[in-house]
Design brief:
The complex is a heterodimer of chains A (about 675) and B (about 325). Chain A is built from 22 helices and 24 strands. By secondary structure, chain A is of the alpha/beta class. Chain A has an eight-stranded mixed beta sheet with strand order 6-7-8-3-9-10-12-11, with helices on both faces. In chain A, a hairpin with a 2-residue loop joins strand 11 and strand 12 (about 315). The radius of gyration of chain A is 26 Å and the shape is globular. The two termini of chain A are about 50 Å apart. The mean pLDDT of chain A is about 85. The chains are: A alpha/beta (about 675), B mainly alpha (about 325). The interface of A and B includes residues 62, 82, 88, 108 and 156 of A.
Chain lengths: ~675, ~325
Amino acid sequence: MKNKSILEIKNLDVEYSTLTDKVVALKDINITVEEGESLGIIGESGCGKSTLSYAIMDYLPSNGLSNGKILFKGENLLEKSPKEQTKYRGDRIAMVYQNPYSSLNPSLTIGFQLDEVTMFHRGFSRKEARNASIEALKDLYLGDAAGIVRRYPHQISGGMQQRICIAMALLCKPDLLILDEPTTALDVTTEVVILDIISELKKKYNMSLIYISHDIGVINKVSDRIAVMYRGEVVETGSQHTIYKHPEHPYTRALINCMPRSGIVKEEVRLNAIPGYVAKRSAAETGCPFVSRCEKKTLICQENYGLKESKANHFSSCSRAYAEDVPDKERTRLKIPLENNVKEENILSIKDLYKYYGGPGKKVRALDGVSVSLERNSVLGVVGESGCGKSTMGLTVSGLLKPTKGQLIFDGIDIAVSWRKRTPEILKNIQLIFQNPGRSLNPSFTIETIIGRPMKKLLGIKSKTERRKMVIDILKKVDLGEEYLSRKASQLSGGEMQRVALARAFSISPDLLVCDEPTSALDVSVQASVLNLLGELQQESKASYIFISHDLNVINYISDYIMVMYLGRICEYGRKDEVVGPPYHPYTEALISAVPDVDPDSAKQQIRLEGSPPNPTKKIKGCPFEGRCHKKIGKICETTAPPKVYFSDDHFVFCHLSPGKLGAK
Amino acid sequence: MNLFKRFSQRLGFMILTLVVMSFLIFLLVEIMPGDVAQTVLGQSATPESLAALRESMGLNDPLMVRYGHWAGKFIRGDLGESLYMRGIQINTIFWRKVGHSIILALTALIFYVPLSLFFGVFAGVKAGKLPDSIISFFGLATMALPEFVSGIILITLFAIKIPLLPITSIIPIGETLWENLNILILPALSITLVMFGYVSRMQRSSMLTVMNSDYIRAAILKGMPRGYVIFRHALKNALLPTITIIGMNMGWLFGGLIVVETLFGFPGLGSLTLSAIKTRDVPLLEASVLFITFIFVVSTFITDMMYLFLNPRIRFKGSDS
């Protein structure tokens, strides 16, 4: 017996007309969402996921043209007048956006922004509306709801802002809720809580959901069915289990395989990168949208093709994911694991490092006594929630920030000073890579100038022809050709820009590279190739990395050692395999459990961390994690700083609990 | 608490700026070429009488002493004696002209602020459409015209072709401004023409930015009607940059209208300052310039406070949970 369908999209096309030509944003979309069903939409950026959600809301830019039918409970939304639209928007169909902070009006109180929804759609009085708003906030487990409504958006944390946006969307109990990457801007620990609440409320109100994300782990948690989008087309739909275990479209398979996930480490495999990037689609283009990046393509792919039902409820526009006439690429490992575990000498020793921001009275303790060493030829992964001090640590090592107290011993010299006071030799040997290459490369310089500049300044190579030869060599190493020499940074895609940033850093062969979230701004398929490249360059140059990321899967893939930070302090440090398995610090345990699993069948015990890290301006006597810890012992956690407990020579944890309680067998 | 701290901080800055500026004005007039005593007594004065006058005016004292003396008198409200019009206390003429200027400035404000805000918002909402193009063209055209050109056009239109208003803004002897309020209209209109393009363009672009923001999108997709979104959600945020522009021009409006006042013969602070420069009337010049500075500083202060009122992000900074 088939359920009643809430939303039916039939042959939807969306085109944007620009000054020069027409760009296809959506092509022939056919999607059905049934009552109480949740549909996950996955794809890289630029694949039309957001355009689809705005097309449903009939909110496209003025140069966007939509064609087709969007039937909501049998009525075509595209034929509604602006006045009729307001009856659907916010009432029957509601939306939650990626960035909660910018989606809330900064100059109006939260209560005002919530109240107006029911005042307009339900005709509530001011008082009734306020009561409804407070009820809705309680639904989302916001403790002090009556107090929150009086505040302004900037006065509360990101996780709470997103809960408010969700509460706002649910005020009128909509039939369909569209969530556009609602947790992408949040920490994993917050993400888990939000995802749980979403699934719970969906059941409670029997809503239909459309959940958009680039992360298949997140999609798995909340959807019954998954649609894979690529360049404006739905290329495959099916149940989450089918999509993960038996993908038919080569893009689906490639997308799943390029994601680093638990258990995948560089000692075993190289990540499966998809070459190239998501290009704009012109109206003239026909055939398979993935053909230019596909490994399994044949001559017939250029001809017309379409979505076919291969098995029950499984539609795919291609079935060559596992086609054997084109063999799979051989998977090689990135690093050969060392059998005898030879210890190398330390290249960097951080001793009791402190960094405070702000003046007296409002002192923010960004680094609160960090001591750690980094071996030559190894990768130290630094992981933690935002605000834990991981970026500050990278910036003090690179010299962009001067530490308040403590030592940084690099090659036997204390470099705990700002970069201005460092010798050119040290400047050359410590290089930095930033999260957003688009903002860290000067858009109006050519690639040759960008890469050549540190050679001229720090290596003192005056001859232009000599520099050019070296730049070409290094470009080759990052898989970019000679033709890039004269291009400007602004003409490159995100992945290419990050390669240039890598080339610039490696052009002067540093001993230490600080990578601050180098892949967070990239799409997963590009992230895979940049991670592979980072691994290769590390093996070849024998340089050490400090690799900072909020993504535990990425850290686990690339690192040799992992350091878990919380509120400016170390929670746990050790060899990768020692940190990700028990015994571990309760915070590490919570972080690992919070990472959404790519495999929908894996049943993982999840630990829900309530609240957010405490105010960093307060002086903490005990353990910084005590307020959120699920294994808190009692008074001792609040009053006494936890001891450093060694489980092996290079694995330690700061915790009061006995090793047995930390999961040791 | 935080509000009070910010208020007193701004107030302190305001006073500091005034002190520094008064010293600079004092120094500037000091190092200007030309001898005050010579100006007073004329070219034929004997060296003895010049020396005697310098002594009696305190011109031979050290710099800091003279500054202290001068500033002290100012604080007590004694603006000194005019040099050009000997024996006349500046106080007796100065405040009447300042009053005239303030009335003119307020009239101009009442004219141009609502007009430019309204059309700026309108153009921003209709961006890219015909009303936007008309408003933008008109704004650009009036902005490009200097006030003496637009003023002459206004005079020709409304005083000569259609004799509705007086050609000049002179107050007949024995009468006050209150009996001649119609003389304000033409000068205020020509100021409006200068400011309209400037302010409405600013308002248009900030409105455009706000209308494209995520929170306006969220408000529209919550099903709020368009007019409500514009006035309740967008306007408060879109006013912020425009307020800065209006505030920054307040000083010019209250004391810098030299061209407009000269053109219409309006007896205000601008024309008084101009005549002080022409007659090398140092005390009068110092009083005028210091007063204009004062207006500048006070209007900046008011702008800051308005900002605080409209922007909760500043108002409640640091009170995060």
